[in-house]
Amino acid sequence: MLSKLKPPNSEFDGQVKPIRVQSAPQAAAQAIREAITIGALEPGQRLIEQKLAASLGIGQPTLREALKELEYEGFVHKIPQKGTYITTFDKKDCRELLEVRMSLEPLAIERAAPKVTPEIEKDLSRLVAGMRTAAETFDVPRFCACDAEFHCKIAALANNRRLAKTLENILSQLLVYGTLGRRPDSRKELVDGAEQHRRILAGLATGNPSIARSVFVTETLKHWNENFQVNLQEDELSLPVRLADSQPTPVSAWSK
After folding, report:
1. DSSP letters of 162-197?
2. What is the distance between the alpha carbons of residues 194 and 153, in angstroms, rounded to a whole number?
3. Are residues 29 and 115 located together in one domain of the fold?
4. Partner of 110 for a Cys bridge, out of 150, 177, 209, 236, CB 3.0 to 4.6 A?
């Protein structure tokens, strides 16, 4: 119980992150997740529980709990009577997820832009720099962690818990496809991703919701189309319309 208590008004608040103690299933899930991320475990590969549990130094019940977490995230899937397999890259599913994302995240981007202070911009710049360094050193787990935190912070600025939670779910699934769709020996997708986020941050830093939204949509579609061939164009999307950009329909027209 004491380990969960946090001293009030600590002088280090905001400077360090609380330690998160992982359970055995969580640690096992993280180990498997990283193995998938770096290409050690390949898409479509069958996971033989007895051998995998022995390699991880855990029991099969613990491994099954870990696999449940990974299945929920989309990294693995079970086939009845056959076993558990690493998920394969599905362009159709990826495109569907991206369509949903592009209907939601522009709203978060618009709401976040006016709230980007110099301190917040510096924090987001740190994450972009982390992505760039990770891309150059081919540190895929670190790249993914910086990527996820970047979008999480933007969603938090939108000040809508349901929007943030929905986006977290969509983005975590897209991260899976971004991992599975990347060639294990290629740095290109990572380098392009870091540059994409640099431009998104530049749009946010203007403080202008319309500019931030436009940059985000353009850069995000460009990245996924060029690196993962989802072939999704802006005119195919139902993007949210800002009230300032629209003209109200005259009441007289409603009765026609």
Report:
1. HHHHHHHHHHHHHHHHHHHTS-TT--HHHHHHHHHH
2. 16
3. no
4. 209
The CATH code of the domain that includes 127 is: 1.20.120.530
Q: Quote the domain boundaries for residue 218.
A: 91-234
Tokens of 169: 């779910």
239-249: pLDDT as tens digits: 655 544 544 44
For residue 85, what are the β-bridge partners?
46, 77
Distance, CA of 217 to CA of 153 (rounded, Å): 18
**What is the distance between the alpha carbons of residues 112 and 49, in angstroms, rounded to a whole number?**
44
- Terminal CA-to-CA distance of the chain, rounded, Å? 66
Identity of the amino acid at 173: Q
Could you tell me how far CA 159 lies from the centroid of its own chain? 18
Q: Which residues pair with 84 in a beta bridge?
A: 47, 78
**Do 155 and 164 contact (CB within 8 A), yes or no?**
yes
Supply the pLDDT for residue 186.
80
pLDDT, tens only, 163-178: 999 999 999 899 889 8
Q: Is 60 in the same domain as 125?
A: no
b vs e for 162-187, b when ≥16 Cβ sit within 10 Å of the residue's Cβ? Answer: ebbebbeebbbbbbbbbbbbbeeeeb
Structure-token pair, residue 5 = 């208590």
In sequence order, the 6+-apart residues with CB closer than 8 A to the CB of 32 are: 41, 47, 52, 56, 66, 67, 70, 75, 76
With beta carbons less than 8 A apart as the criterion, state whether 245 and 143 touch. Answer: no
Q: How far is CA 22 from CA 25, 28, 135, in A?
A: 8, 9, 27
With respect to residue 243, please indicate whether it lies within any of the assigned structural domains: no
